[in-house]
Amino acid sequence: MMGPLPSRRDVSTLYFIGVTTGKSSIMRVFPRWAEELGLDAEIVGVDFALHDRPERYRGIVEHIKADPLSMGALVTTHKLDLLEAARDLFDDLGPYAARLGEISCISKQDGHLIGKAMDPITSGLALDALVPESHWAAGGGALILGAGGSSLALSVNLLERAKARMPHPRRIVVTNRSPGRLDEMRRVHDELGVDVPVEYVLAAVPEENDRVCADMPPGSLVANATGLGKDRPGSPLTDDAAFPQGGRIWDFNYRGDLGFLAQARVQRDDRSLEIEDGWIYFIHGWTRVISEVFDIDIATSGPSFDRLSEVAAQTRSESTGGG
């Protein structure tokens, strides 16, 4: 449950709205990034229970809106619930926020409170680091385990690549334990009007995910976007799951028990897997939001981005953290 709302701030403040924010590496990374970027600012974590009460979400949004030095926030886990509870408090929503029904970034501009969904952008930046465009030419597909906000963002990014005639997977499969989020994802995909086959699979137990994973063609991307391995222990797959030969395996998590990554590493050599955790997603996710909230230009590649990545990596080597 969330504790008391933050009090009025006397220094520019970025909030991190999550579940276990104190365990996140950003609490150590941000002060070093702020120094690197010349920002006189602090970060404050605000923890909510999963699917917390609407008035709690409204409370933090109202605080950010009213307090001059509360500059904005990155929202994780609660992206859908926060927007549903506090949509009327925002003066403007970005195009992805309105389309996906979620907010991952809260910022201010000319006295207006802005809500944006940054994940379609940041997931694409992270995906490019794992899967070169040339990889899709061999005919691999994409299996996204979970149908929450991060999954929806990744799927939208992949479909928009197809719409722009960029290299993309020939087939996308999304699984989830309950049908509601799959139905919502189908609605968003239908609005995009992209002619790429998308399958929506109800997978109430891990064995169902195993079956779908085994059916993916060689070279496919398999992404764990369920939160399992971070907010909750475990993996969406069983230890008997077979990853696609030559597959690109991506866990959106980088802290926790990371069971999905452990399963992939067992098969790394036999199946020639390329494996990535959520660290580069973490870097892109936070730098995009910091750029938005503080209205500063932060490159997505090149020497200055590499320097921020290096600074963050130093804190990661000092202590294991999370997003």
Describe the structure.
- With 323 residues, this protein is of the alpha/beta class.
- The protein has helices at 26-37, 54-66, 79-86, 95-100, 119-130, 149-163, 179-192, 206-214, 259-266, 268-271, 279-294, 303-318, and strands spanning 12-18, 41-47, 70-75, 92-93, 105-109, 112-116, 142-145, 172-176, 198-202, 221-224, 248-251, 274-276.
- The protein has a 6-stranded mixed β-sheet with strand order 2-1-3-5-6-4, with helices on both faces. Strands 9-8-7-10-11-12 form a 6-stranded parallel β-sheet, with helices on both faces.
- Helix 1 (26-37) runs antiparallel to helix 12 and helix 5 runs antiparallel to helix 11 (279-294).
- Helix 6 (149-163) links the parallel strand 7 (142-145) and strand 8 (172-176).
- It is globular.
- The longest helix is centred in the last third of the chain and has 16 residues, at 279-294.
- The protein has 2 domains: 12-117 and 280-318, Leucine Dehydrogenase, chain A, domain 1 (Rossmann fold); 121-277, NAD(P)-binding Rossmann-like Domain (Rossmann fold, 3-Layer(aba) Sandwich).
SSE diagram, text form:
Layout: E1 12-18, H1 26-37, E2 41-47, H2 54-66, E3 70-75, H3 79-86, E4 92-93, H4 95-100, E5 105-109, E6 112-116, H5 119-130, E7 142-145, H6 149-163, E8 172-176, H7 179-192, E9 198-202, H8 206-214, E10 221-224, E11 248-251, H9 259-266, H10 268-271, E12 274-276, H11 279-294, H12 303-318
Parallel strand pairs: 1-2, 1-3, 4-6, 7-8, 7-10, 8-9, 10-11, 11-12
Antiparallel strand pairs: 3-5, 5-6
CATH classification, class level of the largest domain: Alpha Beta
Largest sheet strand order: 2-1-3-5-6-4
> How large a portion of the residues is in β-strands, by DSSP E?
15-25%
Examine the coordinates and then state which fold CATH places here, giving the name of the CATH topology of the largest domain: Rossmann fold
Low-pLDDT stretches: 319-323
The value of Rg in angstroms is 19 Å
**Overall pLDDT confidence:** 93
Q: What is the total number of structural domains? A: 2
Fourth-level CATH superfamily of the largest domain: NAD(P)-binding Rossmann-like Domain
Task: Describe the sheet with the most strands.
Answer: 6 strands, mixed
Using the alpha-carbon principal axes, give the shape.
globular
How helical, in percent, are the residues? Answer: 40-55%
CATH 2nd-level architecture of the largest domain? 3-Layer(aba) Sandwich
Structural category is alpha/beta
What's the number of extended β-strand segments? 12
Instruction: Please trace the helix and strand order, writing H or E for each element.
Output: EHEHEHEHEEHEHEHEHEEHHEHH
